[in-house]
Specification:
alpha/beta, 5-stranded parallel sheet, 32% helix
């Protein structure tokens, strides 16, 4: 069962300095349009970044809408990760629920 986090929960984690890593699995051109501060690790190249993904704290994975991040989490869970959270609705939902200045595309 994949764990997930809502945009408002993520916002709380950010405000309370919760220890977590935020990973953005979108493409570089998408990150140029809109960003919520995640480390860019595009889904197609994810295996190259495995060594940079924390195992000792929570990891939130996001994309535009939540589908690619779910695919990324399935990939990483098959490699033994069990600390991953999918951002529900992705950056679009984050823009709607937390920060309307984040561009939607």
């Amino acid at each position: 069962m994949m764990k997930s986090i809502t945009p408002t929960e993520l916002d709380q984690w950010q405000k309370t300095n919760e220890a977590f890593q935020l990973i953005d699995v979108r493409e570089p051109f998408e990150a140029q349009i809109a960003s919520i501060g995640g480390e860019l690790m595009p889904l197609g190249q994810l295996s190259a970044f495995v060594g940079q993904i924390a195992k000792d704290k929570k990891v939130v994975v996001h994309c535009r809408s939540g589908k690619r991040s779910a695919d990324a989490i399935r990939q990483l869970e098959s490699m033994g990760f069990d600390n991953l959270y999918n951002l529900e609705g992705g950056i679009l939902a984050y823009s709607d629920q937390v920060d309307g200045t984040v561009p939607k595309y």
